[in-house]
Design brief:
The chain has 11 helices and 4 strands. Strand 3 and strand 4 form a beta hairpin. The protein is elongated and about 70 Å long. The chain starts with a helix and ends in a 19-residue tail after the last helix.
């Protein structure tokens, strides 16, 4: 089922795009990323809706009173929280769903890149089994995997992908993945009450997710790093167009002096 519904469609879409855009696999990944963003737009809109409702909840006097009343009873507080979620139509997983959907896409894309970059006879045989009949495979395979200085089927740090600066191999793509993931997380996180559990969880995600994504980009095929970068940039642009970018999150927080 994985091959039928995830891997094979991804491979064929990538190769089909590759055929129409100058036989450039990097451009194919960029256009594929744009398509993924368009397809998952309803989930993004749902995420935005969920975030706005969570903001309304944080400003609700009823919720603030519940927090004060049950601050020493975590179990009762959790029960009341679920009740108020139901009243306000809040889905606790609403803001996480696009991220959950992203993981099978990442795995499928990594596998499809590896499969599409086939060069050995056995690899070519495996690829031929997944190619649809309308794809002119005999004219396209093996694919041109070069994009900028990289072979997109290899990890960025592997030879000949390694970009040498001052005698050191510098993982430029990995660094850009970490930076853009961090910026996207910060810009897309709505302001919240610092004492709220959701705010604390968002803070931890903003810290660990860029590191995790950077590790994946560093370890696996550089084509996946290209996908991450384009997806992050498009995510920021998409939220900006929807009017939900929080630029203030990038500014240092001013501490308010307490009155003596």
């Amino acid at each position: 089922m994985w091959n039928t519904f995830i891997l094979s469609p991804m491979v064929n879409v990538l190769i089909w795009i590759y055929n129409f855009f100058f036989h450039n696999f990097g451009l194919a990944i960029i256009i594929f990323t744009i398509l993924i963003r368009l397809v998952t737009y309803p989930l993004t809109a749902q995420q935005l809706k969920s975030q706005k409702k969570m903001q309304e909840l944080q400003g609700s006097k009823k919720w603030q009173e519940i927090q004060k009343k049950f601050k020493d009873d975590k179990e009762k507080l959790a029960q009341e929280q679920m009740k108020i979620y139901k009243e306000m139509g809040i889905n606790p997983l609403g803001s996480c769903l696009p991220l959950i959907i992203q993981f099978p896409i990442m795995i499928g894309l990594y596998q499809s890149i590896t499969l599409a970059m086939a060069s050995a006879p056995i690899q070519l045989l495996n690829l031929s089994r997944d190619i649809y009949s309308f794809i002119p495979a005999s004219q396209l395979i093996p694919l041109n995997s070069k994009f900028l200085w990289m072979n997109l089927g290899l990890p960025e740090i592997s030879s000949p992908n390694a970009l040498i600066i001052a005698g050191f191999a510098v993982p430029i793509m990995t660094i850009i993945v970490v930076v853009t993931t961090y910026l996207q997380s910060k810009l897309m996180t709505p302001p919240a009450n610092p004492g709220d559990q959701g705010a604390q969880m968002s803070k931890m995600m903003n810290l660990y997710m860029p590191i995790f994504m950077g590790w994946i980009a560093y370890s696996l095929a550089s084509g996946l790093a290209l996908y991450f970068i384009i997806s992050n940039v498009l995510g920021v642009a998409q939220y900006a167009l929807m009017g939900n970018i929080h630029w203030s999150n990038l500014l240092p927080k001013r501490k308010v002096a307490k009155a003596k």
